[in-house]
Design goal:
single chain; about 120 residues; Structural Genomics Hypothetical 15.5 Kd Protein In mrcA-pckA Intergenic Region, Chain A; five-stranded antiparallel beta sheet; 4 helices; ribosomal large subunit binding
């Protein structure tokens, strides 16, 4: 069974093309190795999917070929992911006021300094 199909069918990715793109970008690892979309899976493999600064760690329990409902998909994997960090601890998103134009060099340096903290 292909990695991208399995990731899509157990609802770790919204679409199969997003699952394949995540594999190509190096965001998916199988047993610690970087996975290509067509790599085969077997029960017992550990799959790590990185998404938005958070890593999901799941163990393959059962292989399914088609997308199924959430309760059935939950039976096909064992979720070993660490809990998500609270929103207060994640880095804030910097948004500029609409119409403010491009940041000046000084503002850009200030933003870079804030992001490093």
């Amino acid at each position: 069974m292909r990695v991208d199909v399995w990731i899509w069918s157990v609802r770790l990715a919204k679409t199969r093309s997003l699952a394949a793109a995540a594999c190509k970008a190096g965001h998916v690892r199988v047993n610690g190795e970087r996975a290509k979309p067509a790599q085969t899976l077997k029960p017992g493999d550990e799959v790590r999917v990185r998404e938005e600064g958070y890593e999901r760690v799941v163990e393959v329990r059962k292989l399914i070929r088609k997308r199924v409902g959430a309760p059935v998909a939950a039976e096909c994997l064992i979720d070993n992911s660490p809990p998500r960090p609270p929103r207060e601890l994640t880095a804030p998103v910097f948004e500029r006021d609409r119409g403010a134009g491009r940041p000046t060099k000084r503002e850009r340096r200030d933003l870079d300094q804030l992001r490093r903290r």
